[in-house]
Write a structure and sequence with these properties.
It is built from nine helices and eight strands. By secondary structure, it is of the alpha+beta class. It has two domains: 68 residues, Orthogonal Bundle (Arc Repressor Mutant, subunit A); 170 residues, GAF domain (Beta-Lactamase, 2-Layer Sandwich). The protein has a six-stranded antiparallel beta sheet with strand order 5-4-3-8-7-6, with helices on both faces. A two-stranded antiparallel sheet has the order 1-2. Strand 6 and strand 7 form a beta hairpin. The radius of gyration is 21 Å and the shape is elongated.
Length: 260
């Protein structure tokens, strides 16, 4: 398949996915006149780039995060990062600890922004790094926004422990996510890095969809259970400020189009 032909096929698949909400491998093969193996590779490439995502049960490929963002269905990472940065700076100043911003990238979280604490002993944000979503507080508040079936599709084949404290099974993760949905926040104590605790809340867009995880991260001894309620309130306030920044701005009075 030539490069130009491959691009044409990819665009045709994107058009079909957005028009119908999902496609199957056989449908793509028949409509494009290509072998099922070629259709499978094409859809797999689009899935790797987050343009489509495959439902683990129906096997249907549906619009992914990037395709939805391009269509205006969700806000993009750059927009979230821009909206969150000033609230993150205020949060870091209020808590005295590091702050991180993460987004879901398939079954992982990617850290897309961070503010570093001024403490000599601190948890430094790892901007650009990826970790399994189940092992981080920011990742778990995003997983909690998904259905149990979607989570099972991501981790049904097994969970890899990063430390002795990492959740060890899908059942443990499912139970943890149920608690997070009820509480509205997540705590990770030494689950991705020994000696580091993170507390996170979701950042939501105007439709209520969780689009990022906002976390305060510090050495465990500086985030004891007795002080978490204050940190959670500070996180919640910063998340709300970010959501406000993400909302469409009303046009200033006097700038409306005139039709008289």
């Amino acid at each position: 398949m030539s490069e130009i032909r491959a691009v044409v096929h990819a665009l045709a698949v994107v058009d079909r996915v957005m028009a119908e909400g999902g496609v199957r491998v056989r449908q793509v093969a028949d409509e494009l006149g290509i072998a099922p193996s070629s259709a499978h590779r094409l859809l797999g490439t689009l899935a790797e780039q987050d343009y489509v995502v495959q439902d683990p049960y129906s096997r249907i490929y549906r619009p992914g995060a990037k395709l939805l963002a391009l269509a205006g269905g969700v806000v993009g990472t750059r927009e979230v990062r821009h909206a969150a940065h000033r609230p993150m700076e205020s949060l870091a100043a209020a808590t005295g600890e590091s702050v991180s911003l993460s987004v879901l990238a398939r079954s992982e979280v990617e850290f897309v922004d961070g503010i570093e604490s001024g403490h000599v002993l601190r948890a430094s944000p790892r901007i650009g790094a990826r970790l399994p979503a189940y092992a981080t507080a920011g990742g778990r508040v995003l997983l909690a926004d998904l259905t149990p079936e979607e989570v099972a599709g991501m981790f049904g084949t097994g969970i890899r422990k990063l430390t002795d404290r990492t959740l060890g099974s899908l059942n443990e993760l499912t139970a943890a996510l149920a608690r997070i949905r009820q509480a509205g926040y997540a705590v990770s104590r030494g689950e991705s890095t020994e000696g580091i605790t993170a507390v996170a809340v979701p950042i939501r867009d105007g439709s209520g969809r969780a689009v990022a995880g906002l976390a305060v991260v510090a050495p465990t001894e500086r985030l004891p259970d007795t002080g978490l309620s204050v940190v959670i309130e500070q996180l919640t306030q910063a998340a709300r400020q970010t959501t406000t920044e993400l909302l469409p701005r009303a046009a200033p009075k006097g700038n409306e189009d005139r039709h008289d």
